[in-house]
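Late entry, 3-phenylpyruvic acid complex.
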Amino acid sequence: MNDKVFAKPIKKQFEFDEEVAAVFDDMLERSVPFYKESQKITEFFALKNLNENGRVYDLGCSTASTLLNIHRKLSTNAELIGLDNSEAMLQRARQKCEAYGADIEVCNADILEYDYKEADVFISNYTLQFIRPLVREELVKKIAAALQKEGAFIFSEKVISHHPKLNKELIECYYDFKKEQGYSEYEIMQKREALENVLVPYSEEENIKMALNAGFSHCEVLLRWANFATFIALK
Ligand SMILES: Nc1ncnc2c1ncn2[C@@H]1O[C@H](C[S@+](CC[C@H]([NH3+])C(=O)[O-])CC(=O)[O-])[C@@H](O)[C@H]1O
Ligand SMILES: O=C(O)C(=O)Cc1ccccc1
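Prediction complete; structure with ligand written out below:
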């Protein structure tokens, strides 16, 4: 189904509700530049760092697309756990996992409150940006603490530039991308208003500093296009 969520006047701030979940896979592919490539590079590094009988968490797993791709490529035993607090998303995640016969644990949980077991890999793509800045670093600290000593944290985020002219042009570049994906100016502006203060992006440097402050020994960008980036942080 094509995403037409913002083709009408918005009545509330952006939510991961039934209407969004129903078109979510289309929305991601048409709203996140190089989404498929960010997923592939996430899967590559997740599999590189996943040990025999290891554990991987996907925080903000939505419809479990990333864990399903990892499941398909797994050559060892591993525990795949997807966390999300949108029941509408999780219903679709469970349907997809069942349809593919994938042994993936999908839990309705707040990633800020969840009690993580030790894991080899954490993934959180396009999710931290929805976590209030006041508590975001605390969450990344929890992730670092739950990772085993050579664990990896792979995360993707929308990013900003603190150079005013460049930030403006990055946004224009992104909106040109959205228009090429078939979104109207009206839809782009409606969604921008709905996301105001809901999606709060950091700069590339602020994301790296957050990971280092949270206890990771190294963090760098694996992939970036304009204002979207995928990072890897190593314990
Ligand atoms: N506190 C929270 N606790 C649990 N889940 C949350 C919380 N806040 C937001 N979410 C969930 O985080 C997900 C963010 S979408 C991730 C895409 C996926 N990673 C993908 O790569 O396909 C990104 C986007 O839509 O741009 C949604 O499913 C929310 O319900
Ligand atoms: O920042 C935007 O304008 C977006 O559309 C990003 C996005 C993509 C998918 C769900 C929510 C926000």
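The pocket of GEK (ligand 1) is lined by residues 16, 28, 60-62, 65-66, 83-86, 89, 110-112, 125-127, 130 (CB under 6 Å). Will revisit in the morning.
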